[in-house]
Every structure is written in structure tokens, then in C-alpha cells.
Amino acid sequence: MPRPAGKKPWRTLTRGIAASIAGLGDGFRLIIAHRHINYYVQVAGSDDGTLRIEAASNTYIEPPSAALTIEQYAQMDALGWRRATEDPPELATELRDPNGSPNFHRDVAAGEDLDTVADLIVRTLRDVYNIATPDLLHYQAFHNLLGDFECPQLPIARRESAEW
């Protein structure tokens, strides 16, 4: 089992995420995921400069033994995520957004502080999904029509689309 990382690797990842999402436009996506469990956060750009960020809910988490607990759902609420539309009935609350996403989600307005957005992503990966170190993560970056691209600011391994 990997040893928990100190603060520096997570700070470096936070800075790398903020730099990488700064230029995401329409059709561009960045997915940061655990290498072995289907925990992920994805960021999608739009033509008006807004971003949609989503984090895996139990609908997509594999293996089933890695499913989030009620306490982890409460952590997601506390971090400001909107609830997934397909939560298991025992986790359903009035916080659910029926027009949202099957994942936890949040829309980020153009001009919003991207350091804060990157911190939310890292806190979700580290504190909710309990990922011990950024070494357990990889990323995929792509445009819907143009294919894969690199994010050299990210201090984690890149995974190409064909590998997913």
C-alpha cells in the first residue's frame, strides 16, 4: 500500500491542475483518475469560458467495494458538489439536481478563481476518495474532434485515449 504523500506533491498537483484547466475551451476535456479504481474528476470546457466539473458517483465507481459511503457523500456536499441524479435511494436527498449529471457536478463561471477549482478537485481526490498519493493518479486530455493533447504542467502520468 502506498504511503500517504506529504503536502508538497498535492500542492504541485493543485498548481498543475489550475494551469491545465485555464485554457480549456469548447470540446476540450481533462480527466484525472485513479490508476486502479474508477475514481475520477473530469473538467469540460465550453465556448463561453465556463467549465463543467464532474466527480465520479457510485453510479460509475468500480469495483463495487470502492463505492462511496454516506459519510463520503456528506463530504462531497460539504465541498460544494451538486448531487448526482442517479444516487442510490438510501443516499438520495433534496440536494439532488434532477437536471444535472449522473456524477457529482459543478459549473464554474468564466473568471472564477481556478486555484480554488483546482483545490476542490484535489480535496475530492485526496480527502473523499482517500487517494494516498498523486502517484496513484493519471490523466487524459483530449478534444472531441482533435484528439489527445498533453498537459505538461501536470506532475502525473498521461494516459492516451486508446488506453482507456
Strand content: 15-25%
Average of per-residue pLDDT values: 88
The helix content, as a percent range, equals 10-25%
Task: Count the DSSP helices.
Answer: 3
SSE-based structural type: alpha+beta
Helices and strands, in N-to-C order? Answer: HEEEHEHEEE
- CA-CA gap between termini: 24 Å
- Assign an overall shape: globular
Sketch the major β-sheet.
Answer: 7 strands, mixed
Q: How many strand elements?
A: 7
Structure, described:
The chain is 24% helix and 21% strand. It has three helices and seven strands. α1 (7-21) packs across α3 and α2 runs antiparallel to α3. It is globular. The mean pLDDT is 88.
Summarize this entry quickly.
The protein is an alpha+beta fold. It is 24% helix and 21% strand.
Question: What is the strand and helix layout of this fold?
Answer:
Blueprint (H helix, E strand, L loop, with lengths): L6 H15 L6 E7 L5 E6 L5 E5 L14 H10 L24 E5 L5 H15 L8 E7 L3 E2 L8 E2 L6
Parallel strand pairs: 5-7
Antiparallel strand pairs: 1-2, 1-5, 2-3, 3-4, 5-6
